[in-house]
Structures are given as structure tokens and as C-alpha cells.
Write a structure and sequence with these properties.
Helices cover 80% and strands 0% of the residues. It has 98 residues and is an all-alpha fold. Helix 1 (4-15) packs across helix 3 (31-52), helix 2 packs across helix 3 and helix 4 packs antiparallel against helix 5.
């Protein structure tokens, strides 16, 4: 979704915790160039998120999975034990994806 250099700058700045000056030196561009690329990449990511609503969807699915687990904990009938365990495992997969 981002150009390679933008993705690299985002990674270096946010994941590797490098300063703008350090990134500029590593990439052999000006500090202002790094700053501009970073802002442009952030803007692109924000626009993608606004269109796709991935965080909103993730949050809804996560809350639903938590609710499923809560509801499963209320089922005490022994004959549903295996089914409840399967449901808990599947809901756990959703929660562990995040």
C-alpha cells in the first residue's frame, strides 16, 4: 500500500525507533526529505484506514469474541462441555490474532 521507501521510513521511525537524522543518514537523503516522506506515508495510512475501517472492524470482532467467552462461562451443563470448549478455543483464536 505504501511505496517501498515510505514503508522503510515508517519501519525505521516507529519500529526501530531511529531519529529523522539517523534515517536521513542511513538512506542518504535530507532530514526534511525523511520528514516529508513520513508525513506523506502517515497520511496515506490514515486515508486507507478511513476507507477500510480495519481497526473499527477488529475492535468489534475482538469485543464479540470476548462476549462469546463470557457467555460460555455461564454454561454449566455437562452435556455441552465439549461444545463450549470448542467455542472457547475458536473465540480464543480470534483474540490471539490481535
Amino acid at each position: 500500500m505504501l511505496k517501498d521507501n515510505q514503508a522503510n521510513i515508517i519501519d525505521l521511525y516507529y519500529n526501530q525507533d531511529l531519529s529523522l537524522s539517523e534515517i536521513a543518514e542511513d538512506m542518504n537523503i535530507s532530514r526534511q526529505g525523511v520528514h516529508d516522506a513520513l508525513k506523506k506515508a502517515e497520511k496515506s495510512l490514515t486515508e486507507y484506514e478511513e476507507k477500510m475501517k480495519l481497526h473499527y472492524k477488529y475492535d468489534r470482532y475482538y469485543k464479540a469474541a470476548e462476549n462469546i467467552l463470557r457467555l460460555c462461562s455461564l454454561i454449566n451443563d455437562e452435556k455441552y462441555k465439549d461444545t463450549v470448549e470448542n467455542i472457547v478455543n475458536e473465540a480464543g483464536k480470534i483474540l490471539n490474532e490481535g
